[in-house]
Amino acid sequence: MVTAGDVQRALDGRWGWIREEVRTALCDPLFAPVFDMPMDEHRDRVLKQAQVIAEAPGPAYLFPKAVGGLGEVGAAVTAFETQAHGDLSLLVKTGVQWGLFGGAITHLGTEKHHERYLPDVMSLKLLGCFAMTETGHGSDVQSIRTTATYDAKTQQFVIHTPDDDARKDYIGNAARHGHAAVVFAQLMTQDECRGVHAFLVPIRGTDGRPCEGVSIEDCGHKAGLNGVDNGRLAFNQVRVPRDALLDRYGSVAEDGTYTSPIDNETRRFFTMLGTLVQGRVSISGAAVSATKSALTIAIRYALVRRQFKAPGTDREVPLLDFVQHQRRLLPALATTYALHFAQEELVAQLNEVFSTDSESDDVARRKLETLAAGLKATTTWHATHAIQTCREACGGAGYLSVNQLPQLRADTDVFTTFEGDNTVLLQLVAKTLLTNYQTEFGELDTIGTVRFVADQVVETVIERTGGRALVQRLIDAVPGRDEEQSLRDRGYQLSLFEWREKHLLDGVSRRLRAGISSGDDPFDVFNSAQDHVLAAARAHIDRLVLELFVAAIDRCEDEEVKGLLDLVCDLHALSMLERDRAWFLEHGRLTPARAKAVIATVNELCGLLRQHAEMLVDAFAIPDIVLAAPIALGDEAARQRAKGADQA
Ligand SMILES: Cc1cc2nc3c(=O)[nH]c(=O)nc-3n(C[C@H](O)[C@H](O)[C@H](O)COP(=O)(O)OP(=O)(O)OC[C@H]3O[C@@H](n4cnc5c(N)ncnc54)[C@H](O)[C@@H]3O)c2cc1C
């Protein structure tokens, strides 16, 4: 008999030890969820919680050993992912402090900045912000308009906000607690603009009041994450010393001469942004965790909540026995398992790329950035949809704040927008695929991408991520015609996902080439194919997620767990196929009869997994104290009622 503990071991993986440490830490009543706290009190509570976390080893793993850190980003990001079962305001607050503010100093700064600031960033002695977005420019960060003009006479940079549109907006930690900010601005020196660079700028004095020339506004109450103090920052000719420039990718000499190891401004900009990828990876992991919390609540409730008597009996039926209830919750659970393993691979790649030896491997970096962008879009959209489904699946009880789902929904909603808007991220994924990883991530603008694709003669190449040989073996083993395959044949499923991706990418390439050869405007060519471009990116991520799930199952040593995960993987793959069956029908890869068979097989799989549903959510090992929803904690009276009804 497979137990939740067996499955948990397969899920916990390489950084299981830090997951356990964080789970234990989360059991402190200080981390118990709250839902009706006034905003200011919530902000203070979150700061207090962050101060406790600062004492634990989790954040230190993010920072280099040279400054007292523990230097293992995979462990840090896994700790963050586990922390996401607690208050998401706390998660985002600490993400801003250590991941974004600390991350920018680590990756964009040099040794002098590390020594001077990082120990205080780690300990929270220096609370900071990551000030990139402006009111006027969010997704298009390259066009921000804050300036940092070098004054050679005083050897200072003058940070300036030209107008309200150039204010830094939505900035976490700005409204109350931040004392410094990494400010992104256009660097001007010797009368030339050198593009976006980052500067460390004090924003508050020791008395907590804004520094001279700095204006701070509170963004006020938000739809969720109200324990985070988001604010707006504006700078009126604020002077900072020359070494406030985080100068790993560009420096300014005393006389104002600019030098950079990367000549091309756009390439430099995207290289700088690429070093901050861990933020995106972290939010993706948090989305998976929040989805696990919601599914645990909804599935546990569905096992004890009964409605309607089966005809001819006195027995009321547990919600999870209704096929439609299974269909709402179990495919979402299966996809959450799939995304868990994809996230695990993403974290492993992040750890690999940022370990000192391989940091220079450009292709590995591009692949990491592409997977991070695509997976962040996929996990956060999945969270939004699955959490809403869980809320509805719990009926009125799901709407009560005490049962956590409204808060989870409100707090995770914005995950689709920050750390890169999902739609914009998927376009970056597609551009990288269309250029076969030959350019820096995001380096080419729309016109550049269209021209690049138009000049290429080679076909699109499908790059496999994990378990390359295994996936090829499974696909090769698929004999003959589609109609002869079992829908549950893994090789068949993989080959369909791969075929769709290649078909979509080839189609986009052809459209772009045809548009350019007809002399159309490159922007119009790209824009008219934008839906096609996004579909290709989605197909790419769907294929990778399935491959990574298959590889994870193959790694699993416990045969019984393997068998169970195989069922889960079938449900994931076939519910994706069911979702997109119109496309496969249109493209001749499913006959109408087979499309109907997909629906029937999803039903069958839901029925098979129904008996394992409780164990599959128990395997997430979310501490009761943070789950805290009475409907999830197996309310004893409800359990007894359910038991009595079963015996009757
Ligand atoms: C709670 C919260 C906290 C935040 N914290 C921080 C922080 O600490 N630091 C920081 O710097 N920023 C922060 N942000 C800002 C966040 O990163 C931006 O909101 C985000 O990048 C999106 O930018 P925008 O809001 O200007 O949206 P826009 O870029 O205006 O996008 C609006 C819509 O247009 C669509 N769109 C945009 N471009 C295209 C295109 N080319 N093709 C098709 N569709 C397009 C998008 O998909 C989106 O749906 C935060 C935001 C929020 C809400």
How would you explain this protein's 3D organization?
The protein has 648 residues and is α+β, with helices and mostly antiparallel strands. It is 54% helix and 10% strand. It has 23 helices and 13 strands. The strands form 4 sheets. Strands 1, 2, 3, 5, 6 and 9 form a 6-stranded mixed β-sheet that branches. β10 (251-252) and β11 (258-259) form a beta hairpin. It is globular and about 90 Å long. It starts with a helix and ends with a helix. Flavin-adenine dinucleotide binds next to β1, β4 and α12. Flavin-adenine dinucleotide is lined by residues 96, 130-133, 138-139, 170-172, 222, 225, 230, 414, 417-418, 421, 423-424.
Oligomer: single chain
Mean pLDDT: 93
Named once each, the bound ligands are: flavin-adenine dinucleotide
What are the low-pLDDT stretches, counting only 5+ consecutive residues below 50?
Answer: 640-648
Radius of gyration: 26 Å
Shape: globular
Fraction of residues in helix:
40-55%
Strand content: 5-15%
Strand runs, count: 13
Rounded to the nearest angstrom, the distance between the terminal CA atoms is 27 Å
| Biggest sheet details | 6 strands, mixed
Please, how many helices? 23
Structural class: alpha+beta
